[in-house]
């Protein structure tokens, strides 16, 4: 599905929440979803970055997005419940979620992992994602057919030396997706993972500082898979972990 050619109206009037929407893959996904007709809810920590994405969407003729400034690191389940109620009040439902927000932490030997950093990575990459998903389910159940996409990594399928903290958070993400997919089988919600692969982002540069970014695909290059999994053409796809850049 990496060569998927999405119809222009694929996501017309669908309400889609994107986390980590201020830059990188999240920002590109929001702009791409909006270009295909979606009403995007932009969630992120930095208001100025979210406003820039908002401006790009409106300037391109997309529907006016909503902005949710939220730091997942400090958010509690009650924050997510309040957010869900606001979404229901404002839009009546939620048609899709792209869980894109993640942090890398530092690459280090397992014995040297800093306890606080472990907690921070798990809070953002796992706990926040879990609590947010729990809270959002009532809004997602109000849609005719809702797609929830989690972001995984090759190190979330096979552990890699020195990637302990990030890898474990992504193994857990795969587990969350599989559990939910099984629970909601044959219902109106579907849950899948996307592995973007090596992409020209700030996080990739942090992990591989010596790498030439020009050798990598851009976030825009990998959007066909993001469109496919969010739209109706993947209605039968549930419990899958798909690669944007198959080896």
Q: How does this structure look, described?
A:
One of its GO terms (molecular function) is oxidoreductase activity. It comes from Alteromonas portus. There is one protein chain. The chain is an alpha/beta fold and 247 residues long. It has one domain: 3-Layer(aba) Sandwich (Rossmann fold), CATH 3.40.50. The chain is 40% helix and 14% strand. The chain is built from seven helices and seven strands; from the N terminus they run βαβαβαβαβαβααβ. The chain has helices at 24-35, 47-59, 77-91, 115-140, 164-183, 202-207, 223-230, and strands spanning 15-19, 39-44, 66-69, 96-99, 146-151, 189-195, 241-243. Strands 3-2-1-4-5-6-7 form a seven-stranded parallel β-sheet, with helices on both faces. Strand 1, helix 1 and strand 2 (39-44) form a beta-alpha-beta unit. The radius of gyration is 17 Å and the shape is globular. The chain starts with 14 loop residues before the first strand and ends with a strand. The model has no long low-confidence stretch (mean pLDDT 96).
């Amino acid at each position: 599905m990496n060569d998927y050619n999405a119809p222009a109206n694929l996501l017309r009037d669908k309400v889609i929440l994107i986390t980590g929407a201020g830059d990188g893959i999240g920002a590109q996904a929001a702009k791409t979803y909006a270009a295909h007709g979606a009403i995007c809810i932009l969630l992120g920590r930095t208001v100025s970055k979210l406003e820039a994405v908002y401006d790009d969407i409106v300037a391109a003729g997309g529907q006016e997005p909503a902005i949710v400034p939220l730091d997942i690191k400090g958010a509690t389940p009650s924050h997510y419940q309040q957010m869900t109620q606001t979404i229901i009040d404002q839009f009546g439902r939620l048609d899709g979620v792209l869980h894109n927000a993640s942090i890398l932490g530092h690459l280090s030997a397992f014995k040297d992992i800093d306890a606080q950093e472990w907690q921070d990575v798990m809070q953002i990459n796992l706990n926040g994602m879990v609590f947010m998903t729990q809270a959002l389910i009532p809004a997602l159940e109000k849609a005719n057919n809702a797609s929830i996409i989690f972001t995984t990594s090759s190190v979330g399928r096979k552990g890699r030396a020195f990637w302990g903290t990030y890898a474990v958070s992504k193994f857990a993400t795969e587990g969350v997706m599989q559990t939910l997919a099984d629970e909601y089988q044959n219902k109106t919600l579907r849950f899948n993972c996307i592995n973007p692969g090596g992409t020209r982002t700030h996080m990739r540069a942090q992990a591989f500082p010596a790498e030439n970014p020009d050798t990598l695909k851009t976030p825009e290059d990998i959007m066909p898979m993001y469109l496919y999994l969010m739209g109706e053409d993947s209605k039968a796809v549930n419990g899958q972990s798909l690669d944007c850049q198959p080896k």
